[in-house]
Design goal:
With about 60 residues, the chain is an alpha+beta fold. The chain is about 15% helix and about 50% strand. The protein is built from 1 helix and 3 strands.
């Protein structure tokens, strides 16, 4: 098993409620490999008309 660390930027649309955020992030991360651990390290307002937020995520994935 090979582990790799990634910094992942992800848009958080307003249609995703806070309670559903974990599932949303996991679904996006699992496209890149098996998730060992992850954490949100930064949240930024994108400043666009849709009020989306940018999440910066640090993750460890297994191949």
């Amino acid at each position: 098993m090979k582990l790799r660390q990634i910094d992942f930027c992800l848009d958080w649309p307003v249609s995703i409620e806070v309670i559903d955020l974990r599932k949303y992030v996991m679904d996006k991360l699992m496209e890149n490999g098996d998730v060992i651990r992850w954490s949100i390290v930064d949240i930024q307002n994108s400043g666009d008309a849709y009020n989306t937020k940018k999440l910066t995520i640090f993750a460890v994935l297994a191949d």
